[in-house]
């Protein structure tokens, strides 16, 4: 896919670099020459432009890419103006970063395809990590429901997967298991790799280091961790 990323600060830079590494065509743009220089060798093209200027913005192939991402966060006025210009130019698919509730509320008025809240998402992930106190990753589905991946508690080790009864006891649906395997790299160093089991191994015992992927309400995950 082809993306334009406007704003190459820390967030935009990482976004551009990671998407490019995955094989996507990235066109970057920023008013800072140093920011453009730092990314230009890692993306298809990068422009030094003031995207708040309508004529400068027209340099970008806005209507021949899949998504335009406005990654500007620190300059509230610039972010809103760029989004307004993109809407004026009838760009169909716009993602924009919001750094706080007011910024998000204003962006919502533009009826964008997606509003990105990286700071909020990062804070929520940290809250979950601190709340559960374990090695876990969560993905929010809506206000109440999450998909959560976590290392199996020690008390589960040795039980058959079918004996865990997560659904009956905690209303959590188990949707995957990652099995830990020991491998040795080219330097002879022993490492642990996790591989997804395509079918839930109900007749297999849970091993230390395995990870479970479950779906359910956040409060049910809380109840689960308190119970164990």
UniProtKB/TrEMBL annotation:
<dbReference type="InterPro" id="IPR036721">
    <property type="entry name" value="RCK_C_sf"/>
</dbReference>
<feature type="domain" description="RCK N-terminal">
    <location>
        <begin position="3"/>
        <end position="118"/>
    </location>
</feature>
<protein>
    <submittedName>
        <fullName>TrkA family potassium uptake protein</fullName>
    </submittedName>
</protein>
<dbReference type="InterPro" id="IPR036291">
    <property type="entry name" value="NAD(P)-bd_dom_sf"/>
</dbReference>
<dbReference type="InterPro" id="IPR003148">
    <property type="entry name" value="RCK_N"/>
</dbReference>
<dbReference type="GO" id="GO:0006813">
    <property type="term" value="P:potassium ion transport"/>
</dbReference>
<dbReference type="Pfam" id="PF02254">
    <property type="entry name" value="TrkA_N"/>
</dbReference>
<dbReference type="InterPro" id="IPR050721">
    <property type="entry name" value="Trk_Ktr_HKT_K-transport"/>
</dbReference>
